[in-house]
From TrEMBL:
Protein name: ArsR family transcriptional regulator
Annotated ranges, domain HTH arsR-type: 1-98
Native species: Neorhizobium turbinariae
Organism lineage: Bacteria, Pseudomonadati, Pseudomonadota, Alphaproteobacteria, Hyphomicrobiales
Keywords of the record: DNA-binding, Transcription, Transcription regulation
Pfam families on file: HTH_5 (PF01022)
NCBIfam families for the chain: HTH_metalloreg
Amino acid sequence: MDRMEVLKALAHPVRVEFLEWMKEPERHFADQAHPLSMGVCANQFEKRCGLSQSTVSAHLATLEKAGLVRINRVGQWAFYHRDEDKITAFLEELRSTL
């Protein structure tokens, strides 16, 4: 995991908000048609934040590139999960180096 890549990803408040929402998907995405065990569908972020599909996709791609989320693709749909192991590893590294 590239620490600077993660810090850049966390520098935007919308991306931090996405991670916060994914931490409690039952609370924030209860109306999703697909089971939340599949992850949060990309269009749910669009509905919740009101940003365009391309902007939401760019934010999610940044989080994926940083290793903070994983994607589960099912047909034309993309479902997102937090990568808890990588988030924990990043926090531990940050704690030990700063």
